[in-house]
Design brief:
Layout: H1 2-28, H2 31-39, H3 42-75, E1 99-104, H4 111-119, E2 124-128, H5 142-156, H6 164-172, H7 175-178, H8 181-184, H9 198-205, E3 210-215, H10 224-227, H11 230-233, E4 235-241, H12 244-251, H13 261-264, H14 266-286, E5 291-295, H15 296-301, H16 303-314, H17 320-329, H18 351-354, H19 357-373, H20 382-387
Parallel strand pairs: 1-3, 1-4, 2-3, 4-5
Pfam families: Sulfotransfer_3
Transmembrane segments: 12-31
InterPro entries: Gal/GlcNAc/GalNAc_ST, P-loop_NTPase
Amino acid sequence: MAPLKRCTYLQLGSFLLIIIALFFVIRYIPFTNMIARNRLPKPFWEPLEADLAQTRQVRRIQNLLHAKERSVKQELMNYPWPSGMNSSWVIPKYGGNPIRAMILTTWRSGSTFLGDVLKSHPATYYHYEPLIHFGIHQIRSGPKAHRAQETLEKLLKCNYSNLDAYFTYAQKHHETFAHNERVWNSCQRGKEQSCWNPQFWGSMCKLFPFQVIKTVRVRANLIERFLEQSKSLNLRILLLVRDPRGTMQSRTHRVWCPGNPDCEDPAMLCSDLVNDYKTAQHLTKRYPDSFRVIRYEDFAANPEVHSKEILKFVGFQSHAKIDEFLKSHTNANIGGVSSTFRDSKTAPYHWKKDLSFDVIQTIQGKCQDALNLWGYRTYANESQLLNLHSVMPFVLK
């Protein structure tokens, strides 16, 4: 019996040594690497890893949404709601219908400044250039027009699904989302994967009671479909117009303009201005409560007064945040050509000094109808340019 016992003890000892060795192997060698590299087939492991990453992202997005919901509520504290109204009426997450505003114009016409005025309003979600992925083109008709209208309508309803081209562009050009700081900062300014998640943006959008959309690529003839829904969308549209001489001067500073006829040809710009005028005549008569025109020069001459008028038109309330923005952005020129820190009273007229009179005459020759319709003076000589104001009284007839 003794030899048998010794054998049993030896077997038991060997077994224990194997168990201890396995423990240290499992303890000190990353188990996940063993599975991924050596033990289990990839079709088993990779879905588990993907599911885990997706679960983490979903949880992260949920945390960001909860934080932003609290932030929006904080911004709305003491907000001067009209009598009988509260935030739940206008926040989509709670079944409300947000107050929406659309700025429609063309490149270098003052829309960045006006858009920044409106987004300085509390709890405002900003759709900046949602058609930016269409390139340096004006969209007037055809298949592009249909796609552009669909994109705008989806975003007005906080629907970011099936916008692959938009997100692909945004990943390479962060300015697409960077102007919407309230959301962009939440996802670490593009560093988090949630920044490129359509569900993240759609859910964020539904937390905001005020929404602003600014576009410089569609012409006025394409927006009537939105005005037809203006009551259900709670939408107001503002057409922003600028003297084409000022627009063309401002475009000369942009590297993306040369080589693109819709941008560098004043004849194309002024043809659009004429067509926009005719469309505006129709839209103003048919939708007087939902559509309005303003010239950039008029707005810049007295931004405080005109901001109050625009806020009232779109359904936003006057607020100290907007007053602070105007005080800090309208009294001095700071930054480059895209900066919105400008002396608002002189900014619209840099073209009078920066363009040669020959260039001014060339633009006037291609833009006579547009200048006349929109109330801009033409100049016969340099003496008139120095002594006569370029902006005349204007009423859309």
